[in-house]
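We now fix the convention by which a protein and its fold are recorded. The integers have meaning only within a learned vocabulary of local backbone shapes. A complete example follows; check for yourself that the lines match position by position.
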Amino acid sequence: MQHLGIIGAGSWGTALAVACRRAGRRVTLWGRDAEAMAAMAEQRENRRYLPDITLEPEIQVTAEPGDLAAAEACLLVVPAQALRATAAMLAPVLPQRLPVVLCAKGIEQHSGLLMTEVAAEALPGHPLAVLSGPTFAAEVARGLPTAVTLATTERALAEVLAGAIGGRSFRPYVSDDPLGAEIGGAVKNVLAIACGIVAGRRLGDNAGAALITRGLAEMTRLCLARGGKAETMMGLAGLGDLTLTCTARQSRNFTFGLALGEGQSPDAALDASRGVVEGRFSAAAVLAMAGRLGIEMPICSAVDQVVNQGADLAETIEGLLARPFKAEGFSA
């Protein structure tokens, strides 16, 4: 597998293009904004989303969908809420049975579907994989050590894809649990908003650690109820991604929560964000999924109440702290 297509030229798509080129692959980086792509092709740099990272000549930068037709696999790197429309637009030009790696983290808002479920409808017949884990685009682009989960039900495909995108500093670990990887990637964004709120309200490191731990328990309950594996939640796509997103100011979801904790309204905090805050979209969808499965997720519910339902932040926090004590290490 020598030629990879990258669909989506934001910070993460550009970083993956650089990582794949570093792995020795020929890369076609596609974006829908023709003017922006022409500027990137001329400047050999994504000055808007990933400045100071050089795009080598072997990375073809294009806005022509047909240029993806020669790729041997494509990485679909667009926001979760744009995935269906982008996939449907490109479906006619992608070769049949072309493997597609889904790199968006989230749940489709209006349908409640995971990204693999959306892609299965928009790209029928294409083998699917999920790329997830603790990653900041700028660090990947700079070649700093990074480990990710590459999950698909087809072991042979997982190994071929890992060999195609992996390198000394970008290390994929294969998994047969794409559903668990998707649950981790969606829920951690919601929990990162909660951790940002804790930081913004200056509730302390104890509270932050407790929230991450109890948030992991919520994430695991949902994963198991959907048929995923508990060990996935203990790996890179679960605990790894959760830890990164909930503790670093590079995280858009964390900084959105931080602004809320410091007193900004959800709309004002969203306007100040420099990218998509996927956790705000995912919060309601996560709660709807949990409700259908009869799963209790009090932290995610509190985030949804604040960011989507106009609940008072102080009252919501007080409601969480007033919940009855629960067991954590005893069987019923």
The chain has a mean pLDDT of 95. The longest strand covers residues 146-151.
